[in-house]
Request: fold
Amino acid sequence: MSTYTESKLPKVTTARLREMKQRGEKIACLTAYDYTTARLVDEAGLDFILVGDSASNVMAGNTTTLPITLDEMIIYARSVAKAVKRAIVVVDLPFGSYQGNSKEALASAIRVMKEAGAEAIKIEGGEEIRESVERIISAGIPVCGHLGLTPQSINKFGTYGVRAREEAEAAKLLNDARMLDSLGCFAIVLEKIPSELAERVAKEVSCPVIGIGAGSGVDGQILVVQDMLGMNTDFKPKFLRRYAELGDVIRESLGRYVADVKAVDFPNASEQY
Ligand code: KIV
Reply:
């Protein structure tokens, strides 16, 4: 069976993502944080690979995305960029690397592009980060926005619940999305908001809207790769569909390895020199 990369589908660029939206082709996105997984994700035909700051949770074991540093993000992102041939590689600017001012935001974005080999950055927030978005885009760096549940603001929200159910928050989100689109963001991620609102945003803005827990009326979907492969079995939000139970497969395989080593069944005669 030939993979997407073997079939030489064209490299995904920001322009190609926009064309996909225009012709109604949905955009398939996943996260990745390491070389081996990123290669599999790319070969499977994903369009957009995000080195998310969710690495703080799923790779570094933190309870929030706040502790991960720019240096750590660059290490994860460099491994992913080396593996990916077709998808666009987008890297999150972590908490504390852009909120200070737009000069700091640009410096962080430049580090991610130069040191990790990223093709674009993602940044959380709306009106509050307008100047940073403008400055980064004017330096030639594609920017993906992120609205709705923005996990870097968990201490402000106090919960990972659905955002923008109230009219005022929904109106702000819509204005923020219009603003990010007009500044030239190449995409906007909408996380955990009512599907009706997400669909409205996708209809109003010209850039692709990628949803996670935002329903089917948007231009693409993103999930965290460990979650959709069933490696984080204690994380069960309503929006998550599990495509495999790799946690079970890994546990069972590791158990057999332990048993084989203890029983001196591994290595056997053909597995040694
Ligand atoms: O960090 C991340 O994985 C994300 C996705 C959930 C969109 O921002």
Summary: Residues 53 and 94 are 6 Å apart (CA to CA). The first helix runs from residue 14 to 23.
